[in-house]
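**Sequence with structure:**
===
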Amino acid sequence: MNKLCALPGLWLTLGALAIALTLVGCKRQEASTTNVAAPAPPPISVGTEIDDAMITTRVKSALLGDPDIKGSDIKAETRKGTVLLGGFVDSQLTIDRAVAVVQRVEGVKGIDNSMTIKDGKTTVGNVVDDGIVTTRVKSALLADARIKSFDIAVVTRKGNVQLSGFVDNQSQIDRALEVTKDIGGVQAVDNQLSIKK
């Protein structure tokens, strides 16, 4: 019975590895077919990209498994062992708890905290509108050839869109902000994007 219980974790790990390999292949193919004038970030090995994907999976699992955090809308991205945490949370206590949980995750070398405390209550209408805005922003970022949107997390609260994650250079940040500001329903943009090192 105990061996059977361990199987879902193994499948989750293997699934995350397969997704990471697929994304690595997509990113390498995309990089070879697009012309970007800005300098590329220092390259990282396929092994590091896989390690980062595994760390992100562990971080997300740890956050979902923590009863004080699991209902929060926290996004996580990893670059060379540094985890960027973004999104909107209820309190400073939630931020502190999330950082403490992530610090204990195997492979985490550092944490870049970009979480924002929510202001006021939201209505059902706000939640629906925010979901629509988030979808529009993600679609626009995906459609723009100059932005590597696979590494950008998008969260919306009352029309305030937070962009977090890792991009190659400042021109990608500038373009992501420009594209996001042009989306209907966006009231403000909170830039929490970091340039890959």
